[in-house]
Amino acid sequence: MKDYDIAAENTYNTDEKGFMLGITARSKRVFTRAIWEQNERRAAIQDGNREWISVIACICGDGSSLPPGIIYEGKAGIQSSWVCDLQPNLQEVFIAYSTSGWINNELGLAWLEQVFNRFTIDKARRRWRLLILDGHGSHVTSDFINFCDAHKILLAVFPPHSTHSLQPLDVIYSVATAPIRTSKGEFLSNFWTTWSESFRRELILKSFQATGVLPMDAQAVLKRFNKTPQQQLNGVKVGQQGDGDSWRQLRNFLDAAVEDRAKVESKRLEQSLHSLQVQNELLHHENEGLRSLLNNKKKRNNKSKVLDLQHSEEYHGGAVFWSPRKVQRARELEATKQQEASNYNSKKTTRETSKQLL
């Protein structure tokens, strides 16, 4: 950072988190991409009745944050029912879709070009920017790296399995993971409330400090691992069975109880414990969702349609993150089409009625 004179206002951390929607139970759980990609764990957190929405967040060392990118799971395009609650003047979000609900190579490059570069280039004023991220394939393609190199963006990739200790955004996400019983159409308004409450300047600054990124301080991380086993046990609080201990709590307990984490047995224990914790969490939220459905049955009567989103310019790779104003214009166009169709049908009915009377 010193070699390239990277200032705090040009230091960024980005990450993607997935929200699992339970269509029947309306349950939700937040997962990292790495966990989702592990087949043995995916089986515990996914069935044919659930869909995904992922969120790309990016925070800055000066306490600011970029507008989130929301990726819906879909095949035909962005549905009108997904964004019916979008308020462009209040909610600065960028919308995209993929068949999995997660980022892919094309969307990764689209986010870099259309969101990150757009909202950071003016502040950089030709100085170097630092983007800290995980090593997912969507971030390390040749196109992604070439774009960064051409626009003075340095990439710093976290070592495998280290983001829970080193990534500032993990501090934010630990606050922003309250259960949201929701559907695709209700996700945006519920998500924005949580986003606004969690991505505050003071919390963002603390997240960079707690992970030793800004100011640079290796001891901020190392001191967590320098405790004696007895000190670790004294600092760990685990609830009774079924109390809903988080994976972070259970990981701390495991670190304190197991001396040699490199052993195969320790790895197997960690995987089994994580799988059980995930299943317990899902059952907990699913039960809450079922209770919510019994108490409050809401159905949307509006038929969902694919929005007619027009490209005003071509981007490398073809993928697009749509701004709230472009989505709003597409919604207005769809409303106009529906009104014209309604007027046409009304006039047609009037003419047919008049003919019958004659």
TrEMBL record:
Gene3D superfamilies: Ribonuclease H-like superfamily/Ribonuclease H. Residues 349-358 have a biased composition (Basic and acidic residues). GO terms for molecular function: DNA binding. Residues 338-347 have a biased composition (Polar residues). Residues 335-358 are annotated as: Disordered. One of its GO terms (cellular component) is nucleus. It comes from the Eukaryota. This is DDE 1 domain containing protein. It comes from Pyrenophora teres f. teres. The lineage of its organism: Eukaryota, Fungi, Dikarya, Ascomycota, Pezizomycotina.
